[in-house]
Amino acid sequence: MILKDEVIVITGVGAGMGAKLAQRCVDEGAQVVMAARSGGVTEQLEKENDGKAVAVACDVRKEEDCAKVIDTAIERFGKVTGLVNSAYAHPGFHDLLETPDKSLRRSFDVIVHGSLQMARLAKPHMIAAGHGSIVNVGTMTTRKPMKGEGGYAIAKAAMTCATQFMALEMGEHNIRVNQAIMGWLDGPGVRFYLQMESESRGVTEQDVYDDIASRNPLGRIPTDEKCAGAIIMLLSDYASEVTGAILDVNGGEYMPA
User: Fold this and answer.
1) Which distant-in-sequence residues (6+ apart) come within 8 Å of 108 by Cβ?
2) CA-CA distances (angstroms) from residue 177 to 64, 73, 235, 246, 250?
3) Residue 56: what are its φ and ψ, rounded to 5°?
4) The sheet that has 53-57: what strands, in order across it?
5) Nearest CA among 14, 87, 21, 2 for reference residue 223
């Protein structure tokens, strides 16, 4: 169990990769605090994991909510050694300059400011524990721009920059900071997309799947659960010498130079 005795805080835990990640962290020996705006998924995971996972209602735009998440980790498990920033806010599919300013600011508030707030609150507890690992979840559309994703992508790109600065500044405290950039994730969101596309194009869902899968060398859409493994690796001692890294997790659809 590569996360034995670690205490991991995960934001943005929903029905997709967040839930799979939380469960895999528990399976790997960690105790987990799951933060989400709505509690259906997290509360069910809490029930299923017998004290090893706890759900906390949290809007990462609110400092008091972020503090409640970290305080819960300390009260229940005594420390914080890992943080995964995956809270999600998409401003809608628009050309960048047509994206409503209110929606764009909300994305930045959640993705950038929320992540910085969580890291700021977790940092002293990681220092007290003697080590820590922060993983920020990014998106492949910052690497391979897709029309309509501009507002979302620029917030995630700012997170990439923040990742490297935090890695530089927190390394002296034995705190590592990395980013995992996800591509297509075969989970509830993509399955809904496959259904919509098949209906609009008059083809089967398998046809839509095959078209997406053909874009990468592995010939499949990576699953939520498998992609969660990359984050677990970055949280673990297997990545003890890795910080400031931007790891692409997309089946090879995008290969950085």
Assistant:
1) 155, 158
2) 24, 20, 9, 10, 20
3) -135, 125
4) 53-57, 31-36, 7-11, 82-85, 132-139, 175-182, 246-249
5) 21
Pair 188, 17: CB distance under 8 Å: no
What is the greatest pairwise CA distance in the chain?
58
Nearest-angstrom CA–CA distance, 151 and 236? 32
Place of tokens 């764009």: 104
In the block, tokens 């490297």 appear at: 164
Where residue 38 falls among pLDDT bands split at 50, 70, 90?
confident
> In which element (H, E) is residue 67 found?
helix 63-77
pLDDT band, residue 15 (cuts 50/70/90): confident
The per-residue pLDDT for range 73-131, each reduced to its tens digit, is: 999 999 999 999 999 999 999 999 999 999 999 999 999 999 999 999 999 999 999 99
Mean pLDDT of 42-59: 96
How far CA 58 is from CA of 10, 11, 38, 72, 176, in Å, comes to 11, 8, 8, 12, 24
Q: Confidence band (pLDDT; 50, 70, 90) for 32?
A: very high
DSSP state string for 154-209: HHHHHHHHHHHHHHHHHGGGTEEEEEEEE---BTHHHHHHHHHHHHHHTS-HHHHH
- Chain length of the chain: 257
**Considering the chain, what is the average pLDDT of its residues?**
96
Contacts of 62 (CB under 8 A, 6+ apart): none
Q: What is the pTM of this model?
A: 0.96
Lookup: tokens for 243: 């910080």
